[in-house]
TrEMBL record:
<dbReference type="InterPro" id="IPR008271">
    <property type="entry name" value="Ser/Thr_kinase_AS"/>
</dbReference>
<feature type="domain" description="Protein kinase">
    <location>
        <begin position="29"/>
        <end position="276"/>
    </location>
</feature>
<keyword id="KW-0808">Transferase</keyword>
<dbReference type="Pfam" id="PF00069">
    <property type="entry name" value="Pkinase"/>
</dbReference>
<keyword id="KW-0067">ATP-binding</keyword>
<feature type="binding site">
    <location>
        <position position="63"/>
    </location>
    <ligand>
        <name>ATP</name>
    </ligand>
</feature>
<protein>
    <recommendedName>
        <fullName>Protein kinase domain-containing protein</fullName>
    </recommendedName>
</protein>
<keyword id="KW-0418">Kinase</keyword>
<dbReference type="InterPro" id="IPR017441">
    <property type="entry name" value="Protein_kinase_ATP_BS"/>
</dbReference>
<comment type="similarity">
    <text>Belongs to the protein kinase superfamily.</text>
</comment>
<keyword id="KW-0723">Serine/threonine-protein kinase</keyword>
<dbReference type="GO" id="GO:0004674">
    <property type="term" value="F:protein serine/threonine kinase activity"/>
</dbReference>
<dbReference type="InterPro" id="IPR000719">
    <property type="entry name" value="Prot_kinase_dom"/>
</dbReference>
<keyword id="KW-0547">Nucleotide-binding</keyword>
<dbReference type="InterPro" id="IPR011009">
    <property type="entry name" value="Kinase-like_dom_sf"/>
</dbReference>
<dbReference type="GO" id="GO:0005524">
    <property type="term" value="F:ATP binding"/>
</dbReference>
Length: 313
């Protein structure tokens, strides 16, 4: 794989991701270990027979899946190479499965870090959001919408020498827009869906920014709660106020969770926001007394339930 760094981005020179026909996956990768389920298929950890390194393999059954699902994301693979994105290494296919081979992010995902309260302060949380936003900026410049930004799809690399710790993964429902195109599409994970996705109208890159806002809210909430649990709550844009957070963090949440996509912060605005740009000591100022950030008006009691369902049409 020929690639180089340019302006903080990995520039990939591959022209096309080809599907390589094989007889048995065991001839190339061995010692499978189940990691979890992703869009359309299951994900396993495999060891490469060739170099002995561990990789993540997404196994998509050929039977029972649409042609679109089987060809998942292949058309945009060459556009997504970036330091904060889990990239595909190769694509293999036997008689029953297609295998998407990806770099293995061994540091776990953000979902577990939220549940285990591993991100102790706002400086650490700001770093996560900054790197996810960097990945989204790369995608949005290429008119690609991820459409399923959530903690389970934000992973951490622990490979030696890898400076980009936070990576965005799973492009199973991603779409690339044509110039001026807007989508009428319903996909993703309900608690993270933007109102326009729920309404299936006028969907653009702004939908990813709403999802990022939900992720940020959950990171900042003292119990890791979601701001919205169901579609009606998301469409209303009303959520419980955050406690013990800096005014800058509260302002960023507010800007991302704007119901009107035109009023929502863009990824460029997020990367220029004071909460992202300012050093960590901002979050421990004496004047930050932990008072409630009055950015919402109504408490949704159902927001304590975790996201479990992926709704797709």
């Amino acid at each position: 794989r020929e690639a180089r760094m340019e302006g903080g981005e990995i520039v990939n020179f591959d022209k096309k991701v080809e599907v390589k026909a094989i007889s048995r996956i065991e001839d190339f990768y061995e010692d499978p270990e189940f990691l979890g389920s992703g869009t359309y298929g299951k994900v396993y950890k495999y060891k490469s027979v060739a170099d002995g390194r561990d990789y993540a393999l997404k196994c998509i059954p050929l039977k029972g899946n649409s042609a679109e699902a089987i060809d998942e994301g292949r058309d945009i693979f060459n556009l997504i190479a970036h330091a904060n994105i889990v990239y595909p290494v190769e694509v293999l296919q036997d008689e029953e499965h297609r295998f998407i081979v990806m770099e293995l992010a061994e540091g776990g995902d953000l979902y577990d870090k939220i549940l285990n309260a591993e991100l102790e302060d706002e400086a650490a949380k700001s770093k996560v959001i900054k790197e996810v936003a960097s990945a989204l900026e790369h995608l949005h410049k290429r008119k690609i919408i991820h459409l399923d930004v959530k903690p389970e799809n934000i992973v951490f690399s622990s490979l030696p020498g890898d400076k980009s710790e936070v990576k965005l993964c799973d492009f199973g429902v991603s779409r690339q827009l044509k110039d001026g195109e807007r989508l009428n599409i319903y996909c993703g994970t309900v608690p993270y869906m933007a109102p326009e996705v729920i309404k299936q109208t006028n969907v653009g890159t702004e939908a990813d920014m709403w999802s990022l806002g939900v992720v940020l809210y959950r990171m900042l909430h003292q119990d890791g709660n979601l701001p919205f649990h169901n579609e009606e709550a998301s469409k209303s844009g009303q959520y419980a106020p955050l406690q013990l957070v800096s005014p800058e963090a509260a302002d960023l949440v507010k800007g991302l969770l704007e119901v009107d996509p035109k009023e929502r912060l863009s990824v460029e605005q997020v990367l220029q926001h004071p909460w992202i740009m300012t050093p960590g000591d901002l979050f421990h100022r004496p004047d930050n007394d932990g008072s409630l950030c009055a950015i919402v008006k109504k408490v949704d009691s159902s927001s304590r339930e975790p996201a479990t369902n992926e709704a797709r049409k």
